[in-house]
Amino acid sequence: MMKTIEGVFRRGKVELAEEPEDLREETRVLVTILDRGTVDLRARGIGEAAADDLRGRLAAFAAEWDSPENSIYDDYAARLSTR
Predict the structure, then answer these.
(1) CA 3/CA 65 separation, integer angstroms
(2) Which of 11, 49, 60, 63 has the least CB density, counted as fewest CB within 10 Å?
């Protein structure tokens, strides 16, 4: 099984936003850390032309990302901590 579940790192532990169904205890997981800072594209081998191309290809998603319905995800990590 492979599934993506969002969570936050707090007090030395990863807290998941939801508990996966049909998951056995002691199941191994992989965690990807997403830094809230900026991304140095040059350090990742992405030049200005490639960044422009990427920005253009992602533009189709911008309207959805910026829609009022998606504001529910603003400060998502902070909302998780109040649960």
Answers:
(1) 22
(2) 11
